[in-house]
Amino acid sequence: MTIHLEAAPLITLGAGLAILFFPRLLNYIVAFYLIVLGILGLLGQGF
To answer: Transmembrane stretches, by residue range (predicted)?
Structure first.
């Protein structure tokens, strides 16, 4: 049995949980999320 995990859904889940528990960090979490997804997109890591 092989588990194939994509990076984008894991990042999204982590960002969502962080916003849920630390709502004051919303701006930083959204900025970090967008930067990471942009880097993954440039490197060809499909999401």
So the answer is: 25-44
> What is the Cα–Cα distance from 31 to 44, expressed in whole angstroms?
20
Residue 7 tokens, joined:
């990076």
Split at pLDDT 50, 70, 90, the class of 2 is: low
Alpha-carbon torsion (19, 23, 29, 33), positive or negative = positive
Q: Are 41 and 31 in contact (CB under 8 A)?
A: no
DSSP 44: T
Residue 4 confidence class, pLDDT cut points 50, 70, 90: low
Phi/psi at 34 (5° precision)? -65, -40
